[in-house]
Amino acid sequence: MAEKISETLLEFAAPLIDAWGQPPNRKQFEALIKISWLAWNAVVYAERGNRKYLEEVRARNARTGNRQHELLFDDLVQRKRALFGDDHRLFGDWSLVADGEGGHRLHVSGYAPPAITKTPEA
Fold first, then answer.
1. pLDDT(38) > 50
2. Which long-range contacts (CB under 8 A, 24 or more apart) does 77-80 make?
3. What is the tens place of the pLDDT at every residue in 55-114?
4. 3 state DSSP class of 107
5. How many CB atoms lie within 10 A of CB 116?
6. pTM more than 0.85
7. How far, in Å, CA of 9 to CA of 76, rounded?
8. Quick one: which of 25, 39, 59, 103 could link to 76 by a disulfide (CB 3.0–4.6 Å)?
């Protein structure tokens, strides 16, 4: 049985969360999850033949002029391909729920991968 999708998203985002140095507050945690969610889903779509999503996120990052965001996103794309390449699920809606101990619990809905629209580019 596959790992829960919320656990997968947390594992995927772990280097960002760990690099923060201290436990991120809710707003910071949401930002870290959001960029991880975007990178994961963009790669899944690209590997199924739809590179539009990946290219749109990269173009948006480039327009901001923040090179760190571009590099971070590219690192996440490479992480997805290298360590999670066999997991083609899409992350759906997600939310953070207070755990009652000062932290948060992540809830994520997952979706089956989209149909292959054309042969993915290498």
1. yes
2. 77/39, 77/42, 77/43, 79/12, 79/15, 79/39, 80/12, 80/39, 80/40, 80/43
3. 999 999 889 888 888 899 999 999 999 999 999 999 999 999 888 887 789 999 999 887
4. strand
5. 11
6. yes
7. 12
8. 39
Contact between 117 and 49 (Cβ < 8 Å): yes
**Strand, coil or helix: 74:** helix
Please give the distance of CA 115 from its chain centroid, rounded to a whole number: 20
Q: Evaluate whether 61 touches 69 at the Cβ level (below 8 Å).
A: yes
Cβ-based neighbours of 25, under 8 Å, separated by 6 or more:
none
Q: What does each C-alpha distance from 78 to 44, 73, 85, 100 come to in angstroms?
A: 12, 9, 10, 35
Query: Hey, what's the torsion of the CAs at 39, 3, 117, 47, to 10 degrees?
Result: 40
Three-class secondary structure of residue 115 per DSSP: coil
What gap in Å lies between CA 98 and CA 100, rounded to an integer? Answer: 6
Of 66, 67, 65, 16, whose CA–CA distance to 38 is shortest? 16
d(CA 19, CA 31): 14
